[in-house]
């Protein structure tokens, strides 16, 4: 139906309305949308135009209030205090304590894996290289249990996990080589993409599930930071108290508490996000509105610094690295902002600010690309330069089309839905580039 923008706009409005019925999960909304699209397709084949087919199909779907109440009765485990029905007596289908037990077991398992890695490997750099493989499988295991993944999907996830483990530990990397650092850092991106499959319950092609994963990632970062700050305060108070009593707490902290708490907190934070999604969704719009103008100011500062750096060759390597870090931050902010936006709301001032943010990021990306190409022409290729160049090209395509779609939305020529779908459908490009850097770059640059 991509050739029917008017119909897509109507379906976007319908989906946004249904999504606000909090008794209906994202997966159920997607199933309802699939059913709606099937009915529209069948009716258009009989000779109805798009508008007529859509109206008839929605009518057949029934009154949405009734649909919401029906879902509320059938899925009472999804309801919180503010939903359309008061919860009935426990029906035996929900086991909150059981889930908490699973989460704590997985969190302890992640801590044991990290501790065992430290003790058995004995090489700090080797442990850091494998940190994603030691911790993230437990997060994937939580979603596999929660989403009740089929064994086919589980096997499909295990294969790339095993491949990454082989690459990171069998490739003959030079200890201080660039490809070792590139493979280790990009493997985290590839692993995070694999976890999205478990999070989506195997429905990795679903736009809605991918956007849910974007929201989850942002919310997970918020909760993890809050847990880290709270844990840091407790550890500081404990160190101070025991220090006054003459007890040296640091050996236990370094050897046992941190190896267990740091990875375990990731699993606990994921569980909190799953359990308290609406609480963080109220914070998300505020955060995006605060940091968007601040990030625009930072991008303008970067452009000013680059202008005084003496041209492309005059830009220091550290400045280019900082530019890439800022562009990744802009990407995260853009994704999180779009995921937190009401798709039915008309264009407003914040949408203009988002377009300014994207245009400023495009300017930074353009000057960074110019500098990188100039440095490659002057000094030759290296693994770091090619990896940075590829990332900037992937970002450039993403930001260019996002800007184009945003201009159309602000002018009223297209709905917000295509902007949201573009973000989710382009995300695999980053996972693909990360996989190339992990698997192909080391042998291509002689593991140096």
Automatic annotation (TrEMBL):
Decide whether keyword Transport is in the record.
no
Transmembrane ranges, per UniProt, are 100-121, 127-145, 152-173, 179-200, 221-244, 256-274, 286-307, 319-340, 352-374, 386-407, 427-447
UniProt keyword terms in alphabetical order? Membrane, Transmembrane, Transmembrane helix
Superkingdom field: Bacteria
Q: Enumerate the InterPro entries for this protein.
A: Perm_prefix_1
- NCBIfam families, per database record: perm_prefix_1
Protein name, as recorded: Permease prefix domain 1-containing protein
Name its species: Promicromonospora aerolata
